[in-house]
Predict the structure of Spore coat protein YutH.
Amino acid sequence: MFERSIFDEYKLYCEQRFMLGDHEGFTAQNKHYFLVCIDGIEDHEITEAIKMGSHLNASGDHEIATFVPTKTNGLTSFVDGQNCVLFKLPQFVSRSKRQKSFGYELARFHKRGKTYPTGKKESETWSQFWINRLTQLEMLYGDLSKQKKKLSFDQAFMVSFPYYLGRTENAIQYIVDSNLDFGQRSQIEPKTICHYQFSPNTWLTIDDRTGASVKSPIEFVYDYPSRDIAEWMRNIIHRDDDPHGKINKFIKEYEAVETISPLSWRYIYGRLLFPIDYFRIVEGYYRSVDDEEGDQFTDQLFDLLQQEAKTEKFLREFHPKVIPSHWVTNVPKVDWLTEYQAPKLTRNSNDFFIRRQ
């Protein structure tokens, strides 16, 4: 029982429950809390994320949720069958409507995060990490090719993977070439506190009328600012039929606070080339433990494939419609975008697919 688990783990009496985004929340003694499930996240990552949140709060960002330890001063708890971390909502959150866009707010967030004393050695680069993930999918592709019976998702993966393999290899090479072209400058490109995969929904809205929101530290990661910018763009590409206006406004607001360097523009483009959603869906499907979860990933894969032509169109138009004209020559184009097309794959054209049983 939820209430019992909360009391056993935290000595808090759950007076009222609510939802905050996808997170379970509750009220205790006039204070508001929410749980974040952390399956697959290592303790050292959680600890580092909590430190980042404390730094941002001390730097003036008062929309950061505060970590709450267990009654034994532990990091995680076990609630309703899941490993969780508990956070307390800030006592005072601005209730006035935001006068600035996500771009402006994200730039302020990044500016505060640049002073974070990480003390960490250089971590694995994007290209190295992507190579590791690609190798795993290549092994999976080889194993599935030997199987005679394939489920709906298996067949869609087999048909689509060669395209995404090529796109991933282009993204990896693009980042490698960018670092080589910029030489030592790539070594001093500033990092900051970012998010794992930033979108307009990453900051948790606590008041729909005012737009007041809270930032969960569990989302934080130390990386280049271009990571958040690219992931925000990726989300808008998928949601909007004509994303350029919204993205250009976002960039203008962002650069009112922080400048996007030529190398950052390369990183943004390189990250957009990398099909992170495809990897997330495929990896998630083959880790799923029940049919319902597997069917959700199957739906997501077909939705992604249907949107791929729109993504390609955006990548082709990125230079003339998004990058400031004075930086365009510093960001090379990718020739294959004018030569190849995304795989056209729909459920209706693949009636031979075997659904999960």
About this structure: Residues 152-182 form the longest helix (31 residues).
